[in-house]
Amino acid sequence: MSIHKAVIPAAGQGTRFLPATKASPKEMLPVVDVPAIEYVVREAVAAGLEDVLMVTGRGKRALEDHFDRNVELEAGLEAKGDDSKLDKVRSSTDLAQVHYVRQGDPRGLGHAVHVAKAHVGDEPFAVLLGDDLIDPRDPLLTTMTALQERVGGSVVALLEVPRDQVHLYGCATLDDAASDALEEDVVKITGMVEKPAVEDAPSNLAIIGRYVLHPAVFDVLDRTPPGKGGEIQLTDALQTLAGMPVEEGGGVHGVVFRGRRYDTGDKLDYIKAVVRLACEREDLGPELREWLRDSVDELTAAPAQGS
């Protein structure tokens, strides 16, 4: 069955970015001049998923406003003849069919996915986490949906990380023999552990924020008890799916991602993402790169001058 629905969990409070997120959703933090959430929606659309459900909560009205019409603003720009800005404002409105549902009681990523059940129905769907921005030149989601359509079950995105960082992620256990028979950078997963201690990690392949899930995940989440942190973990449900027969919607594969990824969930990585993407833009890049070179030279020389 072809995949055309995407779910974006967006109910988190964004406490790592306080006070900036006290009154504004973290998903609306600008990456240069585009909200982070728009990058994620554009990625879904580029993969052919134009039916997007955002799972939100209190204080997230700005997300709905961003993807809605702003008639007064559009009229003002049109009267000024500012077609460039008018096109930018309208592009987010026309981007996709965006729907919204509230998570209510925030009980973890697994719970947020389960809230999407009524909208998704009985078909495979993608889940995109807003903290991970994938460069549009690296079509990870397209690769994942194509794999799911071929092999069934569920598919997760994996990233090789330094061993001392595995405790920050969900971590995958592989069926090495089955993986060897698959195409390059595709692996068969037999289990997953949420944020394991370094000494207990089964591999250095971390699960990042892209999933293509079989609808069997909803029944599994129904009977998944709270796990790490007292929350319903999607990783625990995937662990169950990995041991189920394919004909029942089981089986989990992974796509090892080797492209460009920007983490906007961490302050330093968020700044790096803004700088990197701005440097690659034709309108900002040349002047910004020159300023960065001068600034690095100045900062490097400062200690030697006693500054």
Question: Would you give an account of this structure?
Answer:
The chain has one domain: Spore Coat Polysaccharide Biosynthesis Protein SpsA, Chain A. The chain is 36% helix and 21% strand. The strands form 3 sheets. A 5-stranded mixed beta barrel has the order 8-11-9-10-12. A two-stranded antiparallel ribbon has the order 2-3. The chain has a two-stranded antiparallel ribbon with strand order 7-13. It contains 12 helices and 13 strands. The chain has helices at residues 36-46, 61-66, 71-80, 83-93, 109-115, 117-120, 140-151, 176-180, 216-222, 234-242, 267-279, 285-301; strands at residues 5-9, 30-31, 34-35, 51-56, 97-102, 125-128, 132-134, 154-160, 170-174, 186-194, 205-213, 252-256, 261-263. It is globular and about 60 Å long. By secondary structure, the chain is an alpha/beta fold. The mean pLDDT is 90.
In short:
By secondary structure, the protein is of the alpha/beta class. The chain has helices spanning about 35-45, 60-65, 70-80, 85-95, 110-115, 115-120, 140-150, 175-180, 215-220, 235-240, 265-280, 285-300; strands at about 5-10, 30, 35, 50-55, 95-100, 125-130, 130-135, 155-160, 170-175, 185-195, 205-215, 250-255, 260-265.
Question: Can you give keywords for this protein?
Answer:
Spore Coat Polysaccharide Biosynthesis Protein SpsA, Chain A; single chain; 307 residues; two-stranded antiparallel sheet; alpha/beta
